[in-house]
Amino acid sequence: MNLKLIVEDKGDRIDRWLSKHILNISRARIQKLIQAGNIILNNKICKTKKEQLIAGDCLEVFVPSPKKLELIPEAIPLDVLYEDKYLIIINKVAGMVVHPSPGHENGTLVHALLHHCRDLSGIGEVQRPGIVHRLDKDTTGTIVIAKTDFVHQHLQKQIRDRVVEREYLAIIHGVLKNRENNDNVVNKGVIDLPIGRHLIDRKKMAVMPSEKNGRKAVTYWKILERLGNYSMVNFKLGTGRTHQIRVHSSFLGCPILGDPLYSSNHSFNINLSGQALHAHKLSLIHPVSSNKIEITANPPIEFTKLLKTLRRKTTN
């Protein structure tokens, strides 16, 4: 698809202006088109998303046709919580990577979805067709996937605008405290600390000031149950940074049990396959019907067994 546009208004930053004036193309997609040299401004290749437009500027936008997926569908069983012709919500199991990456070339959720849905080609990125958000490999629970490009962009906008609500259950070391009332143990609070890539260990994220590329990250928490030296907590995302809940809870001295990256406390004597973190509830507005959809996924057996063990130890 090739488009020619003339800026007739006051103008704006080029990525913002184009995302407002081209239907069904997100701002993130526009930025990638700029990086690929597919946007021409006044007969010259635009090199930055921060280019300021003025009235009279001439733009040419080249949108490549979707690449044919080279991924091979795999008949991997899926726990489908909700599905229609526009979207599907899955209860992801522990150990399943969401999309292909180095070291995880097959067996991912994407491979399973390609077999289940058959029509995801061209939705979003080539290696992440239909993927709106992600869950870490060993985090279980609800994840939504779009079946059309319109729904994909609509759901991503809902996430950016904080319309989508994502709630998690976790079992953590210790008891979280409200940082503003550190002397008093309270049952709920908010963690508002920026997160960025760890400066030394690039596999990890860390609480990082904005001047070192930390991005705003907000997590709401509520203690559901105290279990001796541990707690079961409800976490609600205000933003969606990589490893956000895991980083925030660890930074406050209460890492999630079984977390291989952010927990240094290995005193617990139960074998866990990964962090005890479960995406319990997902709420969104259906992009086509405008109805509210609220889906809940029960925690996996390993999580419930851990909870029963801790309750038993607490009462003994």
Verbal overview:
It is a single chain. This protein is an alpha+beta fold and 316 residues long. The chain folds into 3 domains: 2-62, Roll (Structural Genomics Hypothetical 15.5 Kd Protein In mrcA-pckA Intergenic Region, Chain A), CATH 3.10.290.10; 80-160, Pseudouridine synthase, CATH 3.30.2350; 165-315, Pseudouridine synthase, CATH 3.30.2350.10. It is built from 6 helices and 15 strands. Strands 5, 6, 7, 8, 9, 12, 13, 14 and 15 form a 9-stranded mixed β-sheet that branches. Helix 1 crosses helix 2 (27-35). The longest helix has 15 residues, at 301-315. The relative contact order is 0.12. The mean pLDDT is 88. It catalyses: a uridine in RNA = a pseudouridine in RNA. This is Pseudouridine synthase. The active site is at residue 136. It is an enzyme of class 5 (isomerase).
Helix content: 10-25%
Secondary-structure element pattern, one letter each:
EHHEEEEEHEHEEEEEEHEEH
Q: Please write the CATH class name of the largest domain.
A: Alpha Beta
Q: Count structural domains.
A: 3
In CATH, the homologous superfamily of the largest domain goes by the name: Pseudouridine synthase
CATH topology of the largest domain: Pseudouridine synthase
Radius of gyration: 22 Å
End-to-end separation: 68 Å
Task: Give the name of the CATH architecture of the largest domain.
Answer: 2-Layer Sandwich
Count all strands and give the number.
15
Poorly predicted segments: none
Number of helices, counting only DSSP H or I runs of 4 residues or more: 6
What number is the mean pLDDT?
88
Shape: globular
Give the biggest beta sheet: 9 strands, mixed
Structure classification: alpha+beta
| Approximate strand percentage | 25-35%
